[in-house]
Amino acid sequence: MSARHAADRHGDAAAQTDGMRKNSDAAVSVLLDGGLIAHITDFQSGYPYKVAAMVRSVASQQLQHARGWSNDTEEQRDGILCRLAVEVSDTQTLRLLFELKKQPQYETDRLINFTGTMSRAVWGRRTAMLEYLGELKTGDSAWEWEPNLMTIAVYLGDIRMIKWLYEHLPRELSAALQGSVVISASRGEVEVIRWLHEHDYEIEGSAADGAASSGRVEVLTYLYQRTDARCSSRAVCDAAARGELEVVRIIALDLMEETYESALSAAASHGRLEVVKYFVERGVGVAGTTLAVRAAWGGHLTVVQYLHERLSDDRWTTDAMDGATSNGHIDIIRFLCEHRSEGCTTSAMDDAAAHGHLDVIKLLHENRVEGCTADAMNKAAAGGHLKVVKFLHEHRAEGCTARAMDDAAEGGYLDVITFLHENRSEGCTIGALYRAAMKHHVHVVEFFCKHRSEDCDIGAVMVSAASRGQADMVELLYKSFTTVSMLDELVEPRSVGIEQNTSVQIGVEAGTT
Q1: Which residue range forms the structural domain that includes residue 304?
Q2: Of the candidates 176, 179, 178, 174, the residue with the CA atom closest to the CA atom of residue 164
Q3: Where is the domain boundary, 338, 372, 406?
Q4: Residue 73 and residue 122 share a domain
Q5: Is the domain of 362 the same as that of 306?
Q6: How many CA atoms lie within 13 A of 500 on its CB side?
Q7: pTM of the entire predicted model
Q8: Backbone angles phi and psi of 113, in degrees to 5
Q9: Structural domain contains residue 114
Q10: Does one domain contain both 61 and 133?
Q11: Within this chain, do residues 491 and 447 fall inside the same structural domain, yes or no?
């Protein structure tokens, strides 16, 4: 190709580009001219091509953002074109929609509704679009600022957006934060908190609680040094329970002794040794008698050992060992047996038996003199702890009561029932069979039918089982106990609420033997 031809083609391309640019500029001028828009729309229906092109170009995620939070389809459609323009930062289309809304045929068009556009701009962190909406707003006296803009900006932690809204919103709207400060504090956004405080926004104690709950040391430090916001006693206790020593050091200042005690107790309950040391070494929160108990109940040996060295004897009670036995913390029990003199009560072995802690029971049996009560075997039987029942029977003299077999029956523990039946004389009550039947423990009921002789209202048990649809239970009871006279009673209207002469199925037809 010759240089002349190349130059001609380059010139043609440049001229074409220049022409397209001029046409585009002209199109934009038309779109932004309210008078021309009104003239054009007088002769057409639907939306201009510019609007349709914008809709076709958006990504699915942008469309979802423009729809908003509502699940209602009609609410999603309301103003969606305007929100889409904001979402894609299309100021030209936004201006076009603003002008279209002024025309009679578009006044009631729900798709062209500017409600929610400002919120969409803030949610999308589109400060430029918010500024443009502010300019458009000056051309519509009925258009008001949306009430939640500053709340959203603070929630997002967008300083630039916060500053713009502060400068342009009416004071009553810019001051409304609706709990977003708490969220900002919990996220550790110290710059946002600092800006709000410096511009006379009230920072409430809930913000300090939010920062404490999230371990935001920098925010807490600022709040405690520069504001009056203080954590609640609950926040102090929660921080202590989580073992967040840096947070505790900031917020555990000038508290009531009751709060110190609660916080220290929370730390001990969760085994937070460093926090426990912090309080104890400062002599706060140690006045009560529950501290060692909490640590023992929680099974925190290192805390118990530390408290043994630091607390006076009047801060210890038998509750420490009682609680440790209930939860099966044998290392705690062994330490207390060797190093403390408070001992325990009979509740220790009773509760250990209830939870099946045989190793704990053996330790107490060998090292303590308090013993147990009949509740030990009763509770062990109720929990189905056969090994514990056997140990207590063989090594202890407290025995049990009829409640042992009764409770074992309700739990369906046939092995325990069999052992008690063969080795103990307390027996059971008439309620044992009934409770087993109520829980549909057929194997237990069958055992009672064969091996126990306690009187029981079998008729009532059968009716109850029948009402629950337990045909196998009814059949078992019928075969084991029912006589003709008893069967006659079962079909009486007063017993089962049926008409006279109605055949009742309880394994066989009523009236037969």
Answers
A1: 288-372
A2: 174
A3: 372
A4: yes
A5: yes
A6: 0
A7: 0.73
A8: -135, 125
A9: yes
A10: yes
A11: no
Please state, in angstroms and as integers, the Cα–Cα distance from residue 195 to each residue in 140, 160, 192, 222, following that order: 32, 11, 5, 12
Mean pLDDT along residues 87-100? 92
How do residues 254-275 score in pLDDT, each as one tens digit?
A: 888 899 999 999 999 999 999 9
Q: Verify that 50 and 138 share a domain, yes or no.
A: yes
Backbone angles phi, psi at 428, to 5 degrees: -145, 180
DSSP string, 228-266: -----HHHHHHHHHHT-HHHHHHH-SS--HHHHHHHHHH
Extract the tokens encoding 119. 């919120």
Residue 448 has a pLDDT of: 85
Alpha helices in 42-189 (DSSP H): 49-57, 60-67, 73-77, 80-87, 91-100, 117-123, 127-137, 149-156, 159-168, 171-174, 180-186
CB neighbour list of residue 372: distance below 8 Å, 6 or more residues apart: 346, 348, 349, 350, 353, 392, 396, 398
Does one domain contain both 446 and 402? Answer: yes
Helix (H, G, I), strand (E, B) or coil at 505: strand
Tell whether the model's pLDDT for residue 333 goes beyond 70: yes
What is the C-alpha to C-alpha distance for residues 470 and 465, in angstroms, rounded to an integer? Answer: 5
Answer yes or no: do 462 and 413 share one domain: no
Lowest mean per-residue pLDDT among 29-33, 301-305, 399-403 = 29-33
As a whole number of angstroms, the distance between CA 134 and CA 44 comes to: 30
Neighbours of 30 (CB within 10 A): 15
Closest of 286, 224, 285, 214 to residue 249, by C-alpha: 224
Domain count, the chain: 5
User: What count of Cα atoms within 13 Å lies in the side-chain half-sphere of residue 175?
Assistant: 6
- Beta carbons of 102 and 41 less than 8 angstroms apart: no
Check whether residue 451 and residue 463 sit in a common domain.
no
Token code pair at residue 323? 């609680």
pLDDT digits (tens, 9 = 90+) for 456-476: 667 677 777 777 777 777 777
509 three-state secondary structure: strand
